[in-house]
Design brief:
The chain is mostly helical. It has 4 helices and no strands. It is elongated, with a radius of gyration of 24 Å. It holds the Pfam family Ctr.
Length: 160
């Protein structure tokens, strides 16, 4: 494995089955040079496109998470310390009170945010590992995908 960036049409990305050595895993004969070059170019272009879309998705999740957190904090009811003490005293007097709706709503929102965070981390690591293939085309796809994703997602912060 090369430990510096190279321009190549041969790379294995993330998994063994994502090998950009031939189209769809079908080996071509070296005598068919023109078809071989076209196949490598198409396969590499599709791989760059997939990595670019992963980077766009990562940026959109990042901005969406911020927007969702802001929306949640604005719409969640706030308790004062006095209201919290009254609620605690009321709950200690009766043994089996159901969980209050605001707390359940907060828990569900927090759980949803946690799932979104896990998706963001997984996609981020996939993008990082793709860059660590040291293929310049893949790296440029990630950079372009991050730029496009930021460009598309940034206006979402000002909406609403």
């Amino acid at each position: 494995m090369e430990m510096h960036f190279i321009f190549s049409d041969k790379v294995v990305l993330l998994f063994d089955f994502w090998s950009v050595h031939s189209p769809a895993g079908k080996e071509l004969k070296p005598t068919d040079r023109k078809r071989l070059i076209q196949a490598h170019t198409l396969s590499m272009a599709l791989s760059v496109l997939v990595v670019l879309l992963l980077a766009v998705l990562y940026e959109n999740i990042k901005f969406g998470k911020v927007k969702l957190l802001h929306h949640t904090l604005v719409n969640m009811p706030t308790f004062t310390s006095q209201q919290q003490e009254e609620t605690d005293q009321d709950s200690s007097s009766s043994e089996s009170l159901p969980v209050s709706r605001p707390r359940l709503r907060w828990f569900l929102c927090h759980f949803g945010h946690s799932l979104i965070h896990v998706a963001q981390v997984v996609i981020g690591y996939f993008v990082m590992l793709a860059v660590m293939s040291y293929n310049t085309w893949i790296f440029l796809g990630v950079v372009l995908g991050s730029a496009v994703g930021y460009y598309l997602a940034y206006p979402l912060l000002s909406i609403g």
